[in-house]
Amino acid sequence: MAATNLTSKPEQKSANPQTNLNWAANLKWEKSIRSQIEKLTKKQKADELAGLLAFGGCRGKGSAIKAQRISFLQSLQNLLTIPGNEQHPCLPILDFLLSKPTSETKSKTLRQTLAELIDALLVLPVTSWLDLKIADIVVEAGLYLCCSRELSTEQCLAFYQRLVAYQSLIEQTDGMPESDRLSPLESLLLKAESRLILGIALQHQAGSRTLRRDGQSGYAEELDAYTDNDGTPHANLLKELPLWMASFQRGNMASQWIEKSWLSRKSQDRWEDLLQRTASLTSSQGELALANGTAQFWPATLADSLRNLNAKKRPNWIRQTLQSVDSASTTSAKSKRSKADEDLTAATQSDWAKLASLRCNWYPGADHLTIAYGSNSPQIEFSTLGLPLLNGVWKTELTIDGQICELESEWNSLCWYNDEAGDFIELRNETEHAIIDRQIFLSRNDQVALFSDSVTTKTDATVQIRWELPLDHSWKGKQETHSRAWKLRQQKRDVRLIPLAIPEEVIHRADGKLNCTEESILLEQTGRQNLCMPLWLDWSPTRRGKACDWSQLTITEAREVLAPPIAFAARCRVGGSQWLFLRNLEFNGTPRAVMGLNTDAETVIAEINSLAQAEKLVEVQYEEED
Predict the structure, then answer these.
(1) Distance from C-alpha of 569 to C-alpha of 339, rounded to nearest angstrom
(2) In a 10 Å sphere around its CB, with 0-12 CB exposed, 13-18 middle and 19+ buried, how is residue 420 labelled?
(3) How many Å apart are CA 284 and CA 383, to the nearest integer?
(4) pTM, whole model, 2 decimals?
(5) What is the spatial distance between Cα 55 and Cα 202, in angstroms, rounded to a whole number?
(6) What's the CA gap between 407 and 396, in Å, rounded?
(7) Element holding 536 (H helix, E strand)
(8) Which H or E run contains 220?
(9) Using alpha carbons only, how large is the chain's radius of gyration in Å?
C-alpha cells in the first residue's frame, strides 16, 4: 500500500537502523511482496517499509468510512468493559481516538498525545499465552487497523512486530484441547475474531490468508454452536450476546475493508436469522431481554448489524426494530403497525435454546414476554404498553404436606402455540413427588395474558405452590376495595391482576392469596392432591376502570360434577369482555362440559362472545399414548 500520512521525525530514528529491520528479514512474507520487502530491508528503508505494512483499509474520505471507523473503535472500547480490564493500557488510546478534539488540540499536539499513549502500550511485553487475556489480541489488532497510519515509523514497525508475536501465541493454541472454562465470548474471540483480525492486519505475512480463513471458519462454528437452526440464541448466551454479536460486526467491517467475503452463504443466512430472532428479544426501549450487565451496548450493536445487511428493501421487522432502537421513546400509537399475516414472525421459541419470546407484533410498544427456562427458576422479562412490567427470576416454591419439594434443574417445553389469537407456551418441571405444568398465554390484540401453574401428584396430600414474580419498581400496586384483585399503576396506565382460583369477594374463605410489594407480585394457592393456580392480567386502556368480576365454574362429566383435584375452570369479565379458562388435572378420555362448552382438551382458553358462545383462543389436546 502507498505510504500516506505517516509521521516520522528524524530525531526519533535509531542510531542502529540495521538492527531495527533484522526482524523483517527473518519473517516469511507473501510471495507477491517478498522481493520488495527484501529490498527495503537491505537498504534500510524503514519509512517505506512502515508505509507498506501500515493498514489503510479503514482510512478514506466520506462520512460512511468515518462512521465505520468510529463504530469499530467504540465496539473495541465496549469489549474492555469485561471485568478485569479497568486499567487496560488500550483504554486511554480508545478514549483519545473517540474524543472530539478542539481546535487547540489538533495537528501536532494531537499526534504527540497519540504517540505517547501508543508508546505506553508498546513497552509492555508479550510474554506467554498464560499471561494473556484473549481480548488483548483483538483490541490491539483492531487498533492497528484503525490508526497504524497515524503512527511514527518506529511505532508502526514496533506495533507490527507485536502483532507477529501475538500470531505466534495464537498458533500455539492450535491442536490444544478445548477448555470448558471459556465463556461463549472468550471462545469466539479466540477461535474466530483474533485470527480474522490478525490475518487482515498481517496480510503480507505468509500464512495470513490461512489465518483469516481459520477466523471465518471459527465464526461459522461458533454461530452453529450457540444458535438454533432458526437463529434463536441459547438462553445461556443472552448475558454476553451484545458483546458476542459485536464481534461478528467487527469481523464484518474488517472484511469489508479488504473487500473479502466474511461468511459463507449458509452462515450468512444463519446470521440474518439470528438478527431477526434477537430483534424479537428486543424491547420497545431498545434493550435486549435478560442481557443485564451488557444491555447498554445492545442498541448500537443491533442497529449497526441490521444496517449492514445487504437487503435491497428492508423487510417490516427490520424497519420496526430500527425504529425501536433508534428512538426508545417511540410508542405504538406513533408507529405503523404490521399486517396480520406478519404478526406471527415476531414470536420465537426454541426447545434447544430453552428460550421463548412471546410478542404480539413487531411495532415499537408491542406487548412482549421473554422467558428463559434452562434453570429451576426461570428468568422472565415482560413489557406491556411499552413499559417494563416484570424483569428477573420467577421464583417458585412447592410444598407437599409442609415439606419443600426441590424442583428439577430445568424446565422442558411441552407445547408452543403461535397463531393470530396469540402466543402460548407450556413448560413442565417433573419432580420426584409432583409435576408442575406452567402455561403462559399472551394475546395478540386484546392486551391480556394468563400465567398458570398446574400441580399434579399421586398422593392424597396437602399441596401448596407459591410464586414470586419480579416486579419493575416503577409500578405501584393497590388492592381493589371490594375484591381480591390488584391494580398496578404507572404513568396513568393500569395492569389488573386477577387470581382466578381465589374467590373474588373478600368475605369468602380463600385457599390462597395475592399480594404486591415494591419488588414482587406474590401469589400462593393451597389444595389437596392436585391444584391449578392461574393469574389473569389485563392492561387494556379501553377497559381501564371498567367493572371486573370472576368466579370458578362447575365442570361436569357424563352429568357428574367433578371435584377440584380433577379439573379447574373459571370465567373472568372486565367491562364488556369475558374469558373462560379450563384446565383438566386428571383425565380419562371422556369429554367434559363447562359453561356450554363440551371438550376433551387438556386446556382451553376462550373468549365468550355476545351470544354466550366460547370462541377458542387456545386449545391443547392430550398427547396420544403409544
Answers:
(1) 34
(2) exposed
(3) 8
(4) 0.87
(5) 9
(6) 9
(7) strand 531-538
(8) helix 208-226
(9) 30
Check: CB of residue 496 under 8 Å from CB of residue 539: yes
Flag residues of the chain having pLDDT under 50.
Answer: 1-19, 103-105, 328-342, 626
Q: What was the pLDDT predicted at 12?
A: 39
Consecutive H or E run containing 277:
helix 265-280
User: What pLDDT digit, counting tens, does each position of 321-374 carry?
Assistant: 998 887 643 443 344 444 444 457 899 999 999 999 999 999 888 999 999 999
Nine-digit cell at 210? 490461512
Q: Which residues on neighbouring strands pair with residue 369, listed in sequence order?
A: 358, 382
What is the number of alpha carbons within 13 Å of residue 180 lying toward its C-beta? 0
- C-alpha 235/C-alpha 356 separation (Å) is 9
CB 438 within 8 A of CB 429: yes
**Cα–Cα distance measured from residue 275 to residue 534, given in angstroms and rounded to the nearest whole number:** 34
The C-alpha cell at 134 is 484473549
**How many CB atoms are located within 10 Å of the residue 212 CB?**
23
Within 13 A of 381's CA, how many CA atoms are on the CB side? 23
Q: Which DSSP state fits 131?
A: G
Q: What distance in Å separates the CA atoms of residue 197 and residue 205, rounded to the nearest whole number?
A: 13
Helix axes 208-226, 265-280, angle to 10 degrees: 40
Q: Which residue has the cell 505506553?
A: 120
CA distance linking residue 272 with residue 231, whole number of Å: 8
- Our CA angle for 262, 303, 59, nearest 5°, is 55
Of 305, 467, 313, 327, nearest to 397 (Cα)? 467
Nearby residues of 610 by Cβ (< 8 Å), 6 or more positions away: none
- Write out the DSSP string of 134-153: HHHHHHHHHHHHHHGGGSBH
Cα–Cα dist 578/19, whole Å: 86
Cell numbers that stand for 244 in this block: 458476542
Task: Give the chain's end-to-end CA distance (angstroms, integer).
Answer: 70
Are 88 and 76 within 8 A, CB to CB? Answer: no
**What pLDDT is recorded for position 3?**
35
Grid coordinates representing 310 are 445487504
Phi, psi of 460 (to 5 degrees): -85, 80
Taken in order 246, 250, 256, 257, is the CA torsion positive or negative? positive
Q: Which residue has the cell 542502529?
A: 16
Q: Cβ(426)–Cβ(437) under 8 Å?
A: yes
